[in-house]
Amino acid sequence: EVVDLILKAVEEGQFSVKKAEEFTEYLESTVKGKFIREQDKQNFSYDARAMRVILSDWYNKCAYNFTKDQTILKLLNALREAKMNTLAADIEKVCPWLNLDSLKKEETILKLISALRKAGKNKLASDITKV
Q: Are 32 and 25 in contact (CB under 8 A)?
């Protein structure tokens, strides 16, 4: 349902290419890079399929390690950072079980792991993920 809301926002024109670039920046840098390179291709079309590729790439790169709640929280944070607050609020409405307060600690850890990966400290980030 969360993915469906994101794809619907793309199809309805509420989630522009520029916003998608901002969104990917807060998901994972290589996902953003791939999205930017895809835009240079002659047959590029920004639509729900393109967003599905973004989400799939991110999942395969990072989110496969996350719980469902962590995955949704990361998406919410990336949406908010990209100033997609209405979409983030819509997602929160369809996820009433989310306890955002209890997930804040986990999100802090996720940010630390992300910062470590960006700094090239992949082993340390991997070790923290195992804890």
A: yes
